[in-house]
Amino acid sequence: MTSQNGSENLVVKMENITMRFGRVTALQHVDFEVRRHEVMALLGDNGAGKSTLIKILTGVHTPTSGQIYIEGKPVEIRNPHAARALGIETAYQDLALVSSMSIGRNFFLGREPTRSIGPMGWLDIQRMARETRQSLAEIGINIRSANEKVGKLSGGERQSIAIGRAVHFGVKLLILDEPTSALSVAESRKVLEYTLNAKERGLSVIFITHNVHHVMQVADRYTIIRHGKNVGTYSRDELTLDDISNLITGDREL
Prior knowledge:
single chain, alpha/beta, Rossmann fold, 8 helices, globular
């Protein structure tokens, strides 16, 4: 099991996190950390507590007890807006993209640049299209047109927009929730490539997935949760595919 790294190298540290919903304890004294410029896999079976932990980090839930630190400073993340202000961006399975809007509009969603003459103002569509195309190209994502509707994109292309958006806006931490779920082999390969590109551009990434084969291709470390408790955090070279599967299911401890 990997040793603790210096706190100065941590983007996120979640310490002794407990979450209770009435009489149900979803998380019990969970520790979780993400270093700068790493891909951290968060693994666990259905109901293990992964989603609850991430919802605490992104401000959807307030923990019953425990403390979150961002770059060494204690913080309270009361809502998703607060998480975003701290540099945390999440690409959920549904991606939170608006299908009827263009790629450019989705890329700048909530951050749209405007132009104005006197009291009149309007969205700067041309700037959004230009910067979207340039930003995506910088991380190896080529799109046909920034004016194309997101609803026409494949699942892998939609994931690429979410990843590119996080890189462009200087996010500290990108959370990918089952990013390769229901994608073809070719599209999954592209998403894994984009994930590594995001790391190379300076982001830290939490990669949540059920696909152990995929996570072994991109993750630097793995944190495994079972029944709301930490199983452990391990470096890439410490675990085999069978080790990870056994730790997730509880069939064997290391």
